[in-house]
Amino acid sequence: MAIQVTYRRTSRLSMRIAKNGDVHVSAPIGLPRKKVEAFIEQHSDWIVKARKRTEERLQERNSFYRQLPLATKAQKEQAMKRLKTLVEPMVDRYSKEMGVEPSRLYYKPTISRWGQCNVKDRSIYFSMYVLLLPDWCVEHIVVHELCHLLEPSHNARFHALMDHYFPRWREARRKMKNMEQKRTTPEFITELQPNEIFVFGSNLQGMHGGGAALIAYRKFGAIMGQGVGLQGQSYGIPTMQGGVETIRPYVDEFIEFAKTRSDLTFLVTRIGCGIAGFTDEEIAPLFEKAHGVENIVLPPNW
Question: pTM above 0.90?
Answer without folding.
Answer: no
